[in-house]
Amino acid sequence: MSAIDLRTLLMLVGDLVDGAGPQSPSTRFRAYLQENVQSVGELRPYVETALSTRGEQYNKALQDLVNHIGALLGFTVEYGRYRGVRGQIGFDGLWQSPSGSTVVIEVKTTDVYSVKTATLLGYINDLVSAKRLKRPDQAVGLYVFGRFDADTNQLEKAITAERRQDQLRVISVDALLNLLELQQNYDLDHQTILQLLLPSSVQVDPIVNLIFDIVSEERRGEGLRKPEGKGEVEKGKRRDKAEEKGEVTYYLLPAADSEDGMPVLENLHHWLDRGLWGLGQRTGHRKFFRPGDRFCFYAARIGVVAECTVASASFDLSRKESPKPDLKVPYGIRLQDVRWFEDAPVAMTAEVRTALDAFQERDPTRGWAWFVQGTSKLTPEDFELLTGKRTP
């Protein structure tokens, strides 16, 4: 059975409201997810739609999707209310681990508004008062943010200042999905997942993304080292010879909302319109970029929206030259001949993934974030497809 897209599904079930009846919209929505949306590859489009579409209905759907991720991660999940009412504990989700630990969930679409730590701590204390927990230290509060915006450090600073590091954690939905992908594709056991959700630092993203980046690099490397079939072998040989001769190499680079809260497309324009792009210490292939290479840019939750030609090797980016002087962007690279197609982006659909050389011998319905969350080397044919010059 083909999965129904989120917009259609919400139209079919109706307005999500609090209520435990077997035919209530929320019950039917959650049942559909449980029965039909099991893999991270199927789940990501639902989350992306919920995050990119305005409206209370989609905020409620995001809350349920986060709880569905918790169930897939091996927790026994109790869905919380969409709206708090007097006399009931107002958590968004209650995740019980088989190990005995409890994670109390608070879902936020964005962190642009200040969040008070007392609210989530209050839910934990209420659970103790209701005898659902014996002691407060049996539970940890986890804030799950749809996206980090301008005040991304506000909550982390509050948790640190109040010395609540042992009680409260922060994670993005993207990192939570990355954790699920690690579990589903690399047999990460539940206890390891629980330990990753309870690290020493307040925000869980760095350690999850570190593991995910390493695994993603491995998977991207496998695609280059192990071409399958006669046609793929020939493409691999052509690619190797091209690199030996110093010919053009093609890359897909990821782009996301800036750390200072600038939306992804605005962030891309902020750099590319100046003929620059910022590179991090761990940007894949950074040392091998050379003039004449071709870049295309994947905007998170949108698709590939721009292409350009590399005009320099990477270089140390001074604060004076950086378009983002207040952010730590250690390296830059000069670009030219930037072409935008943001009005007709190439979305990373299953049809597109199936047609890409990078996904040959891979199941296009399985997790694919490894391809777009780090620098991926492309064949010329894949570059043409991703920049709209040919169709799947």
Describe the protein in words.
With 392 residues, this protein is α+β, with helices and mostly antiparallel strands. It folds into two domains: 6-212, Restriction Endonuclease; 248-386, ph1033 like fold, CATH 3.10.590.10. The chain is 40% helix and 18% strand. The protein contains 14 helices and twelve strands. The protein has helices at residues 6-13, 25-36, 40-52, 56-72, 117-129, 154-161, 173-186, 190-197, 205-225, 229-244, 264-272, 350-355, 369-372, 380-386, and strands at residues 76-79, 93-96, 102-110, 139-147, 168-172, 250-255, 276-279, 294-299, 303-310, 315-316, 331-340, 376-378. The strands form two sheets. Strands 6, 7, 8, 9, 10, 11 and 12 form a seven-stranded mixed β-sheet that branches. Strands 1-2-3-4-5 form a five-stranded mixed β-sheet, sandwiched between helices. Strand 3 (102-110), helix 5 (117-129) and strand 4 form a beta-alpha-beta unit. It is globular and about 70 Å long.
